[in-house]
Design a protein that fits this description.
This protein has 568 residues and is α+β, with helices and mostly antiparallel strands. Helix content is 39%, strand content 17%. A hairpin with a 2-residue loop joins β3 and β4. α8 crosses α9, α8 packs across α12 and α13 packs across α14. 38% of the residues are buried.
Length: 568
């Protein structure tokens, strides 16, 4: 049996969410964009051996944490490796002065959080225990999102706590084995969504999002052709008194705090973008079946919440519209976001998210281990320097108050702009909950004026690629057409045909570029197809790549748009 067939037999299919992250990693390799860092402080007499044993036990139980991604016939599969691939790192700083040890500990947290993963190598989690003093430690865990999400962190700490207590007491760890693994969910998901269930939900989203597109906030600088992910944040805090009024209004109108805070922010977006049709994204746990609740894995899905705020509604009416929108979205949350994008086929742009440019979420306080003998446990801040959207509103419900941050793309916005946006948000929420029946236009005078900046201004990539003069197809064009016909099951009729118009999507794009690269024995970056989506444009760029490969004068095997910095 060929080795590739044996590999497939021992490997598992990726879930839709995993497949999307694998594709994004191929699109922008060697980046930490999808790292999930967690750091906690452990003060008191720590049993380091018990800690390593407890972490190792969690990794043993959850196969996805010790997996790697292999590619067979241009398709990704997940392979589980032995638990001994997970080796925590111990760093002792006790010989340093206290202030210096604290500084170095923070540096280790930042460095580990920013170090990329190689998806072809297990495990998908790293651990470092930093000994700052005899009874003072920092534990830093970094997951790749392809193996874990926010809910997973809670599962990990629960199991870690039980395993640590057992190890300290020299007792057996008595949690029952898991009846399912993440790969079982991935297999079930693909079977479940390959039928009427998916088609019905897709029909809903096609109708709901027809004609939608990003309504971005006006930016301080032109949007780059390629998303750098460079970000910063402005902290926000709702006073306790305002928090209680938000809850009271929600109880009156049967809306959750999430819906109330979202409605106010969507009204703010409508004000600054001068568009009443506002779409934002929000993450959902994706754990719609009770069987997967005890699993670590990547279940989270993204929902697009599109709200029509036209007609100068009162805040009461805006709340009702947002509530209907959210409940409707929850009822159709099974469609993986990447599958939705493929169906809707929005205009592709590597510098902008296809359906929305703002994410909004409200969650509880970060989970922590509990019941660790003799230890005080607290959260330790991790530097947040990566953003995936223009603006990410991340709020935390702490019971007596809401806190959080407006994270933003530093390539697009000045800090002062986002500080004004945060101030506007706090001010607007207070005004709206005080007098929810007044038309929202009444409050516009209390907000910062709409900026004259343009989010769709000139891009730094200059003119697009030049099409050939068009006579008979060249050999490279013929090769491109043959490969496209093979992966798309549709033969291009012209060198001007567009890959995505022919039915191409992210996974098929990866296959096409992989096969073209093998045929020509040259490395072809996946973004090339997004910048040059027609047969003629792609062939021209491939020929440039072949010439560059011959004389070895360029650091990239193919040209990026003119004027674009080639270093991420």
């Amino acid at each position: 049996m060929p080795s590739s067939e044996r590999c497939v037999e021992s490997a598992a299919t990726l879930s839709f969410a995993q497949q999307r992250l694998w594709f994004l990693d191929r699109l922008r390799p060697g980046r930490p964009d999808h790292n999930v860092p967690v750091a906690i402080r452990l003060e008191g007499p720590l049993d380091r051996g018990a800690l390593v044993s407890a972490l190792t036990e969690v990794v043993r139980r959850h196969e996805v944490l010790r997996s790697r991604i292999t590619v067979v016939d241009d398709s990704p599969y997940q392979v589980t490796e032995p638990v001994d691939t997970f080796v925590p790192t111990l760093t002792d700083l006790t010989r340093l002065p206290v202030a210096r040890a604290e500084e170095r500990a923070r540096a280790w947290v930042a460095q580990d959080a920013a170090t990329p993963f190689d998806l072809g190598t297990a495990p998908m989690v790293r651990a470092r225990l930093v000994r700052v003093a005899d009874d003072d430690h920092l534990l830093v865990l970094v997951f790749h999102h392809i193996a874990a999400d926010g809910w997973s962190v809670s599962v990990l700490w629960q199991e870690f706590s039980a395993a640590y207590r057992a190890a300290v007491a020299d007792e057996p760890f008595d949690l029952p084995d898991l009846p399912l693994q993440y790969e079982d969910f991935a297999d079930w998901q693909r079977k479940y969504l390959d039928g009427p269930a998916l088609r019905q939900q897709l029909d809903h989203w096609r109708e709901r999002l027809a004609g939608t597109g990003p309504a971005p906030l006006p930016t301080d600088r032109p949007r780059p052709a390629l998303w750098s992910g460079r970000g910063d944040q402005v902290d926000v805090e709702f006073p306790a008194e305002l928090t209680e009024r938000i809850r009271a209004l929600g109880r009156t109108h049967e809306t959750t705090p999430f819906m109330t805070l979202l409605a106010a922010f969507q009204l703010l977006l409508a004000h600054h973008s001068d568009r009443p049709d506002v779409t934002v994204g929000t993450p959902m746990s994706g754990r719609t079946r009770i069987e997967v609740e005890p699993l670590i894995g990547f279940f989270v899905n993204t929902l697009a919440l599109r709200t029509d705020l036209s007609g100068d509604p009162s805040f009461t009416e805006a709340l009702a519209r947002v509530r209907r929108c959210a409940v409707d979205a929850y009822a159709h949350q099974d469609v993986p976001f990447d599958r939705l994008v493929e169906e809707l086929r929005p205009e592709r742009d590597l510098g902008q998210h296809p359906l929305f440019t703002v994410m909004f979420q409200l969650e509880g306080p970060p989970p922590l281990p509990s019941g660790l003998p003799g230890l005080d446990v607290s959260a330790h801040d991790v530097p947040y320097e990566i953003v995936k959207f223009d603006v990410e509103v991340s709020l935390t419900d702490r019971g007596d108050r809401f806190t959080g941050a407006l994270r933003y793309a530093a390539d697009l916005f000045d800090r002062g702009t986002v500080e004004r946006l945060a101030d506007d948000y706090l001010k607007l929420v207070g005004l709206l909950v005080d007098d929810p029946e007044r038309p929202v236009s009444h409050w516009a005078a209390h907000l910062s004026p709409r900026a004259n900046r343009s989010a769709s201004g000139p891009r730094p990539d200059g003119a697009g690629p030049v099409a050939p003069d068009g006579a008979r197809p060249t050999e490279t064009e013929l090769l491109v057409m043959d490969v496209w016909a093979e992966v798309l099951d549709v033969a291009p009729g012209s060198v001007h045909d567009d890959f995505f118009a022919l039915g191409g999507h992210s996974l098929v794009a990866a296959k096409a570029m992989s096969r073209l690269g093998r045929a020509l024995d040259v490395e072809l970056p996946l973004p090339l197809l997004f910048y040059h989506p027609t047969v003629a444009e792609l062939a021209q760029s491939i020929e440039a790549a072949l010439l560059a490969d011959l004389d070895s004068t360029h650091s990239h095997p193919a040209p990026l748009p003119a004027g674009e910095d080639q270093r991420p």
